Amino acid sequence: MELRVNTAFRNVKAHHDDQKRSEHVFERMQLRGIGVEQIKEAVQKGAKKLRDDGSVVSHYRWFKVIYREFRVEDTKKIYPITVIEV
To answer: What is the dihedral of CA 11, 24, 86, 70, to 10 degrees?
Structure first.
């Protein structure tokens, strides 16, 4: 199954929250030196916990990734919400 990580925001006014989320997660990734490949690795190998709001927390190495996951055919799409140092 292909895994895609989407940190880009949509350029649509109706999705202002998407832009804020994207800016937040991108800033957090940069501050912690985490790239898209590390996000993929955390999603694939990290210990996961499902939260009440439907998001997933993946604890991997020295950080956690909080994200939402959608499956479309043979693709797992990951929308990171934030990245936290542990």
So the answer is: -20
Residue 30, both tokens: 């940069």
3-state DSSP call for residue 42? helix
φ and ψ at 58, to 5 degrees? -115, 115
Integer-rounded Cα radius of gyration of the chain? 13
Identify whether the C-beta of residue 36 lies closer than 8 Å to the C-beta of residue 30: no
DSSP one-letter code for 52: T
Average pLDDT by consecutive 10-residue portion of the chain (86 residues)?
71 56 83 90 95 95 92 87 89
